[in-house]
Design a protein that fits this description.
One of its GO terms (cellular component) is respiratory chain complex III. The chain is mostly helical and about 120 residues long. Helix content is about 60%, strand content about 0%.
């Protein structure tokens, strides 16, 4: 699936002012709760994400879970992180994207070879 030049321009914050403003707004919201962008991926929605999370080191997954719990706690209390902690947050430091690309590449390779998928969605 090829991405057009227009789509690349539209989503590139360094070239498109609107994309930069959107990136800035998302960053501000994530900093308020101490989250990273990769924390927003739901492993129940996409099984590739679930597999990528399973392959990550335990410390990385534990830190993700801790950030999510803290964000839920702050949200329930209608509070935000203190300003001094918001400054320290790195919302766009990725920890999941490399592993997710690898998992998607492996899945595509398996499909191309005609092998059975490693995991399938089942109805609970």
């Amino acid at each position: 699936m090829a991405i057009s030049a227009f789509t690349r321009w539209l989503t590139n914050p360094s070239k498109n002012w609107f994309a930069a403003q959107h990136c800035k707004a998302v960053s501000k919201r994530l900093r308020k709760y101490g989250l990273r962008y990769d924390d927003l991926y739901d492993p129940m929605y996409d099984l590739d994400i679930k597999e990528a999370l399973a392959r990550l080191p335990r410390e990385v997954v534990d830190a993700r879970n801790q950030r999510l719990k803290r964000a839920m706690d702050l949200s329930m209390k209608h509070e935000y992180l203190p300003e001094d902690l918001q400054v320290l947050q790195t919302p766009f430091r990725s920890y999941l994207q490399d592993m997710l690309k690898l998992v998607k590449k492996e899945r595509a390779e398996r499909e191309a070879l005609g092998a059975l998928p490693l995991y399938q969605r089942t109805i609970p």
